[in-house]
Write a structure and sequence with these properties.
The strands form nine sheets. The chain has an eight-stranded antiparallel sheet. Strands 8-28-9-24-25 form a five-stranded antiparallel sheet, with helices on one face. A hairpin with a 4-residue loop joins strand 15 and strand 16. By secondary structure, it is mainly beta. Helix content is 11%, strand content 30%.
């Protein structure tokens, strides 16, 4: 893929309304029943809920820690507010899960034909037989974000990847991971334990259709199905989630933004209303996705969760949810950072944040 100079990205961008363009999205027609569990109608439709204490975790291995590096390189607890959620009910998890199946996007050629204006006006763009993307910087009243629109030909082109290909191993920077995997587009993934490097957030973690942690899903997972569908399973057993053909999952502490095309109730105003660097993923339908990468280094700029929700809703996303944010929020396209993530050191240099796992797209 031909290199693109990031200097073409606008330094400030044009002032826009909160809801961006959505002219390239066709009407979504469901084929099957709605994503739910046997018990989800009793309350999980309004918010995702927090997991109970895990009896099999040891030494706080999966404790959610959001931290940043000091100038001396030592970890400091992040003083920014953390999400507050509701406890999962004490009863056993549901053993029934049905995920809505949507008609897949026709592919890159269709996107190129119907999104010419978007393509021409984008700061970064690319098109081939297997991949279409545009990336544009957009301004809000309090910050800024990069909106990346992605269409792929085959579901195998959207993937999850652990740092250095090893779950629970040494953390890796997004740029190094993109170069190692050959990713065309890559963003940071799960929340993680800063001390151990383990991905965390959701109780259930799946890699290559195999469970690496968790006795159940606790509503804080973002799952990728082998057909390219993204969904959050709710409070369910491992067996019910695996039956859906999940190939990878990421752990989050963010509220579910959109499910089945409907905006979900957000649970904590202090956290969701805070302007903060954020990474989030939206799916219009399988093979068509939007990524929001907001803010910059040292927690500059950023947007609120409410703004994320409105943006994805305006783009007609059927599903949307946030990944890890803060100094971890990173976007790499064609082997180069698009945003300035990480921490600014005393000498003015930028220390990029290494993270536990990634969500990426390949060209083939």
């Amino acid at each position: 893929m031909k290199k693109k100079l990031l200097s073409v990205i606008l330094a400030a961008g044009l002032s826009i309304s909160l809801v961006p363009y959505s002219a390239c999205s066709e009407e979504i027609v469901p084929d099957e029943t709605e994503e739910t569990s046997a018990r989800s109608d009793s309350g999980s439709s309004s918010s995702e809920e927090k997991k109970p204490q895990d009896p099999i975790s040891v030494d706080g291995l999966f404790e959610v820690v959001s931290e940043k590096q000091s100038h001396e390189g030592q970890s400091l607890e992040d003083v920014l507010p953390q999400p507050q959620t509701i406890e999962v009910p004490a009863e056993p998890p549901s053993s029934s899960l049905t995920v809505k199946t949507l008609t897949a996007h026709p592919g890159p050629a269709w996107a190129m034909k119907h999104c010419k204006k978007e393509y021409q006006n984008a700061d970064l763009h690319y098109f081939s037989d297997t991949l279409f993307y545009t990336c544009t910087r957009k301004e809000t009243d309090s910050g800024y974000y990069y909106l990346t629109h992605i269409v792929i030909k085959d579901a195998s082109q959207i993937k999850g990847e652990d740092s250095f290909g090893d779950f629970g191993g040494t953390r890796e920077t997004p740029l190094d991971a993109a170069e190692r995997t050959g990713a065309a587009i890559l963003v940071n993934g799960s929340y993680f334990n800063y001390g151990t490097g383990y991905a965390t957030g959701g109780e259930l973690l799946i890699r290559n259709n195999k469970v690496v942690h968790g006795p159940y899903s606790d509503r804080y997972e973002i799952c990728l199905r082998k057909d390219g569908t993204l969904f959050s399973p709710g409070y369910n057993t491992i067996e019910s989630v695996l039956k859906e053909g999940v190939v990878f999952s990421w752990g989050t502490c963010e509220d579910l933004l959109i499910r089945d095309g409907e905006k979900m109730m957000l649970t904590d105003y202090d956290w969701n209303g805070y302007s903060y660097p954020r990474t989030s993923i939206g799916m219009v339908r399988p093979l068509e996705y939007y990524i929001i990468t907001a803010g910059g280094a040292d927690y500059e700029g950023g947007i609120t969760v409410y703004e994320e929700q409105e943006i994805f809703s305006g783009l007609h996303c059927a599903y949307a949810r946030g990944l890890d944010g803060g100094g971890s929020s990173a976007l790499v396209i064609d082997g180069e950072y698009v945003n300035e993530n990480g921490d600014r050191l005393e000498d003015g240099s930028l220390q990029r944040r290494a993270v536990a796992d990634f969500l990426l797209f390949t060209e083939s």
